[in-house]
Design a protein that fits this description.
- By secondary structure, the protein is α/β, with parallel strands linked by helices.
- Helices cover 34% and strands 22% of the residues.
- It has two domains: 30-93 and 265-471, Aminopeptidase (3-Layer(aba) Sandwich), CATH 3.40.630; 95-262, 3-Layer(bba) Sandwich (Glucose Oxidase, domain 1), CATH 3.50.30.
- Strands 1, 2, 3, 4, 5, 6, 7, 8, 9, 10, 11, 12 and 13 form a 13-stranded mixed sheet that branches.
- It is elongated.
């Protein structure tokens, strides 16, 4: 019987009963207290992240900086005394940007194109765009870039979108309640299907910041140039599009989109630290997050705060000599930003060598800060478990409000595990207002990271991790393939997977 089967009063009895012996293993409540005290007294995670931001910078997969970050984590864990630290290498085609330029003109039918004054729009190429592109085409406003938008535009004519550059919102604007947004890669795939010559995504944050990120559903290069422009740039283009309907002489808004990028085969490495389980070593709990980042900034929030919370958590377990019943794997994945490459490789390797069934749960730590609860990612039957463990965390710190959820989503390193039926969790964080405004942007710097929020990551994740890893039994099982299909349909994740070409059930 696990924690969620008992009342809070009975939990104290169970927690004490989990002691193997005074010499071999402390009770879970004692472990929680020790983790709490160690982090509050000797936390090193924030200072480690600060050093990485200042001395390594971005951690783009396949870049020199990315390789330095991989080596740094490996060496750091070895210096902490962790005995089993390893690299898991994999091959990738590494994309990197060189240049991107967007010029917009209000065309006049009686004037030569090159004589019309142009407006230069701040832009950045999205990852996995072509190595070289130079196109001039009319601009069409495609709204939110969802299927409903295309249905409306195609009603004008079957070839209306072919050869046009589409202006598309990254977020949702003026959408009906309950509308589900798509990832930028899925919106790009739809645009390609409708014959677009290029896409300009409009960032939905205030100011002149721009966003980067992959626009590929499968990690391969897309066939059209795709860039992101600022909210101000998008507003200017939309104003021009509106004016062409009312100002005599202007026939359309056209855009000249040019970019140069590089692609080269490289090796990247997941970094793994393992603490063997004392009783059930062939069962494991994986806690992972992505070490890699984009190259516009130091990427302190995405995902420095998550990655180096995991680095610090492994240190805490090593210093305290914690060895729960099950094996723990602390995993930093590379290639997440370019299409979940490292976590997909990890899962593929585990399937190939027959060890995926050993993974009883995966906890994903991506941009998490200051957890107030946990998400059971589509498995509501696990909420009681989270609440019961969370009650102990709340007793140590009332800032942890023990607020849990069970919504499912894609697009982070939990996804390959979830698609194989492995139970996955993540922490529900509560950053300061405005922190996530720099998501994938050029303002994601160490100043955004609150050291206390990072300490809370380590404390609360460390406690939940131990509760799962040390339980005599766990109330969750890996889903069978038909159950995964039903799970994805239930949570309306099938549309995105169909667009990606990752829907394997054929219906």
């Amino acid at each position: 019987m696990f924690l969620h089967k008992l009342s809070i009063a009975c939990l104290f009895v169970l927690m004490n009963s989990l002691r193997v012996s005074a010499q071999e293993a402390p009770s879970v409540q004692e472990v929680f207290t020790r983790i709490n005290q160690e982090v509050l007294a000797h936390a090193q995670g924030y200072e480690t992240l600060k050093w990485v931001c200042e001395h390594i910078g971005h951690r783009l997969t396949g870049s020199e900086n990315g390789a330095r970050a991989e080596t740094f984590v490996y060496d750091k864990w070895r210096a902490y005394g962790l005995e089993t630290v390893s690299y898991q290498p994999f091959e990738v085609e590494a994309w990197s940007r060189v240049s991107c330029e967007v010029q917009a003109r209000r065309s006049h039918p009686n004037a030569r194109y090159d004589t019309i004054p142009y407006l230069k729009i701040q832009s950045v190429a999205l990852a996995q765009t072509p190595v070289s592109a130079d196109i001039k085409a009319p601009l069409i406003d495609a709204g939110n870039g969802l299927q409903d938008d295309y249905d409306s535009l195609m009603a004008i004519g079957p070839n209306y979108l072919k050869g046009r550059i589409l202006l598309v919102n990254l977020g949702l604007h003026h959408a009906a309640p309950g509308t589900r947004n798509l990832h930028r890669s899925e919106k790009t795939q739809l645009a390609i299907q409708y014959g677009a010559a290029g896409v300009l995504f409009v960032y939905d944050r205030e100011g002149d910041n721009v966003l980067t990120g992959t626009c590929s559903v499968d990690g391969n290069l897309v066939s059209i140039p795709v860039a992101c422009i600022s909210k101000a740039g998008g507003a200017q283009l939309r104003a021009w599009l509106k004016e062409t309907l009312h100002i005599r002489g202007y026939s359309e808004v056209s855009v000249h989109l040019r970019m140069q990028n590089r692609v080269a085969p490289v090796r990247a490495r997941n970094v793994i630290a393992t603490i063997p389980g004392r009783e059930l070593p062939r069962e494991k709990i994986v806690i992972g997050g992505h070490l890699d980042s984009w190259d516009l900034s130091h990427c302190a929030i995405d995902n420095g705060i998550g990655a180096f919370s995991i680095v610090e958590l492994a240190r805490v377990y090593q210093v305290l000599g914690l060895r729960p019943r099950r094996t723990l794997e602390f995993v930093l994945f590379m290639g997440e930003e370019q299409g979940l490459l490292g976590s997909t490789h990890y899962v593929a390797q585990a399937k190939a060598n027959g060890t995926l069934d050993q993974v009883r749960a995966m906890i994903n730590v991506d941009m998490t800060g200051n957890p107030v609860g946990f998400n059971a990612v589509g498995r509501p039957e696990l909420l009681e478990l989270l609440a019961d463990v969370g009650a102990y965390i709340h007793a140590l710190d009332t800032g942890f409000t023990n607020t849990h959820s069970a919504h499912a989503g894609l697009h982070s390193d939990h996804q390959p595990f979830m698609l194989e039926g492995v139970p996955v969790f993540w922490a529900n964080g509560k950053h300061h207002p405005g922190v996530t405004d720099c998501y994938h942007s050029n303002c994601d710097e160490i100043r955004l990271v609150d050291p206390v929020h990072m300490h809370n990551n380590v404390r609360f994740l460390g406690m939940m991790l131990y509760a799962l890893a040390d339980s005599p039994s766990l109330p969750m099982q890996r889903l069978e393939p038909h159950q995964v299909r039903d799970f994805l349909l239930q949570h309306k994740l099938d549309e995105a997977l169909r667009i990606k070409g990752q829907w394997i059930w054929g219906d």
